[in-house]
Write a structure and sequence with these properties.
The protein is mainly α and 84 residues long. The chain has one domain. It has four helices and two strands, in the order ααββαα. The chain has helices at residues 4-19, 35-50, 66-70, 75-83, and strands at 58-59, 62-63. Strands 1-2 form a two-stranded antiparallel ribbon. α1 (4-19) crosses α2.
Length: 84
C-alpha cells in the first residue's frame, strides 16, 4: 500500500544519499539488488512501522534480501569507518 508519506520518504532517501555523496554504488537499473533502492525501502519501512502500515519487502515483484533491508549497504559509513 502506497501513501503520499511513504512515497515522499522513499524519494527523500534518494535526495539524502545524493546530498551526502552516498550514490557511488548507484546502478541505473531499478531492481531489488540496487543498494540505493534497498536503502530507500529500508527508510520507507521506518515510516511504515510508525504508522502501522505493512512493511515493504520487494522492489516491484522482486523480493529484497531481508538481511539487507535490516542493515542496508551504506558506502559513507564504510568509508568513514575505514578512515578512522
Amino acid at each position: 500500500m502506497k501513501t503520499s508519506l511513504t512515497v515522499f520518504t522513499n524519494e527523500m532517501c534518494y535526495k539524502y544519499d545524493y546530498a551526502i555523496g552516498n550514490m557511488k554504488d548507484y546502478s541505473n537499473e531499478g531492481n531489488a539488488g540496487n543498494p540505493i533502492e534497498i536503502r530507500a525501502i529500508s527508510n520507507e519501512n521506518i515510516i511504515r512501522k510508525i504508522y502501522s502500515l505493512p512493511l515493504r519487502d520487494a522492489y516491484g515483484k522482486e523480493k529484497v534480501d531481508p538481511n539487507l533491508l535490516k542493515n542496508p549497504p551504506n558506502l559513507i559509513y564504510k568509508f568513514y569507518n575505514k578512515v578512522k
